[in-house]
Amino acid sequence: MKREVPLIITAIFGCFMVIDFFVPHPLVSSIGETLQQWAIIVVAFAYVLGVANIARISGQKISRRSRDWFYQFPLLAGLVFMLTVGVVWGVGERTLFNDFYLYAYSPMQGTMFSLLAFFIASAAFRAFRLRSFEAALLAIAAIIVMLGRVPVGTLMWDKLPVVSDWIMNVPQMAAKRAIMIGAALGAISTGLKIILGIERNYLGGE
I need a labelling partner for 24 at 20 to 30 A (CA). Which of 82, 104, 129, 189 fits? Predict the structure, then answer.
């Protein structure tokens, strides 16, 4: 029963959400909205478990003096501080929580993404090495698109923005939609496997 009950609940709720998507009946829609609200509540509890798990793992690293254990102190301090500020003074606009989010968290997040730009540039340099026909084609397309997006490209050739737009709207969009279709088919396949009980990783792989 430890495995059968979660499998039965998952199958029933999964089938009902599929029915809710294809059957526009008020009763079905009402039940579907109720199930979605239950899902939001479950997700909220998952956040609580996530916080508890972070505290547990950080505590273990500190007690064992694991690698980079001292970084766990600012992590736990920030977690407790933001949690306390949010619970005591609220999380709306013009609150202390919002101020720390806008003036501390957002700048740090922007700094991290700025550093990622250098890694992306390094990865692009490695990808654009002309070791094969595909790499050469990718490099030429990337150069045309980049030059077509800046005024220098227009000065070099006035048709360059048109070629750049064609690359973005035709081959790039076709490849992008193919990837999205493939991802959607993969998501549908995974959903069916979960509903039918074939995929059981959420039960701990049992």
Answer: 189
Q: What is the token pair recorded at 60? A: 């273990």
> Do 145 and 167 touch, CB atoms closer than 8 A?
yes
Q: Count other C-beta atoms under 10 Å from residue 166's C-beta.
A: 13
Distance CA(104)–CA(101), nearest Å, equals 6
- Sign, CA torsion 138/142/148/154: negative
Q: Which pLDDT score is estimated for 115?
A: 86
Q: Could you give phi then psi for residue 88, rounded to 5 degrees?
A: -80, -45
Model confidence over 103-132: pLDDT tens digits? 988 898 889 888 887 887 777 777 666 677
Q: Tokens representing 122?
A: 């390094």
pLDDT at 138 exceeding the cut of 60: yes
Average pLDDT over residues 25-34: 86
- Phi, psi angles (nearest 5°) of residue 38: -60, -40
Q: What pLDDT score does 156 carry?
A: 87
- Residue whose entry in the numeric block shows the structure tokens 């397309």: 141
Interatomic CA distance for residues 150 and 141, integer angstroms: 15
Question: What's the mean per-residue pLDDT of the chain?
Answer: 86
**Residue pair 119/127 in contact by the 8 Å Cβ criterion:** no
The interaxial angle of helices 133-148 and 160-169, nearest 10 deg, is 120
Give the pair of three-digit tokens for residue 41: 């509540």
- List CB contacts of 15: < 8 A, sequence separation 6 or more: 195
Of the CA atoms within 13 Å of residue 127, those in its CB half-sphere come to: 13
